[in-house]
Design goal:
Largest sheet: 2 strands, antiparallel
Distance between the termini: 35 Å
Strand order of the largest sheet: 1-2
Strand content: under 5%
Number of helices: 9
Radius of gyration: 17 Å
Structural class: mainly alpha
Helix content: 40-55%
């Protein structure tokens, strides 16, 4: 857990119920990762598996992993040190959720990321959007929502790499975030989940980490 805005704590770990299809898919994917399989191959849809289930499982998994990565640097990400949700001087993100923030609003990075993670958590806990059993079909809004989730999660990578990567290196987490980012990148490219323009802030890094 990490401590977010105003001292609120976050519970990033969303677990898969044992015996469910999503649990089995996650077990297969984790086994492939642990076996050192090429990350580009790891993201490929297993034979005879449902694409939406694959997308749903990875949305939850990446939410957990990115949340934990940010949790390692959140003490250094404050409204004073990071007054905007940015990636260097060129890229800045404004928050809108259609509810409290109806128009894109500039927020300090920790507040933006807290709201983003809360927003994602609410979506993945919504059983109408993420059906708990295969017998319930995914809604038509599922894929557009998945794309929005991945597009926003990518922004956490942008902020962390631009503003907190030195701290991750200090604690020896460089390899971990790089592997997570490579996995995330290959996944969003494989399923065309994020517009290439959104990936531009990390274009140079991506060339180094994902030359193929």
């Amino acid at each position: 857990m990490f401590r977010g805005l105003s001292g609120r704590t976050f519970r990033p770990k969303k677990k898969f119920a044992e015996g469910t299809l999503r649990f089995e898919l996650h077990k297969k994917a984790t086994a492939s990762l642990n076996a050192g399989v090429n990350l580009r191959r790891v993201v490929e849809l297993p034979p005879d598996e449902d694409l939406n289930e694959w997308l749903a499982m990875h949305a939850v998994d990446f939410f957990n992993r990115i949340n934990l990565i940010y949790g390692t640097v959140c003490d250094f990400c404050t409204a004073e040190s990071c007054p905007t949700m940015s990636g260097g001087p060129k890229y800045e993100y404004h928050w809108a959720d259609g509810a409290k923030y109806k128009k894109p609003t500039a927020l300090p990075a920790p507040e933006y990321i807290y709201l983003l993670m809360e927003w994602v958590e609410n979506l993945i806990n919504d059983e109408a959007l993420f059906p708990p059993v295969p017998s319930i079909p995914f809604p038509k809004t599922f894929v557009p929502t998945i794309k929005q989730i991945f597009r926003r999660l990518f922004r956490v990578f942008v902020h962390v790499y631009y503003h907190h990567f030195d701290k991750l290196c200090e604690i020896g987490a460089e390899a971990h975030i790089n592997t997570c980012y490579k996995h995330f990148y290959y996944f969003i490219v494989e399923y065309k989940l994020v517009d290439p323009k959104e990936i531009e802030p990390l274009a140079e890094l991506t060339k180094q980490l994902c030359p193929d």
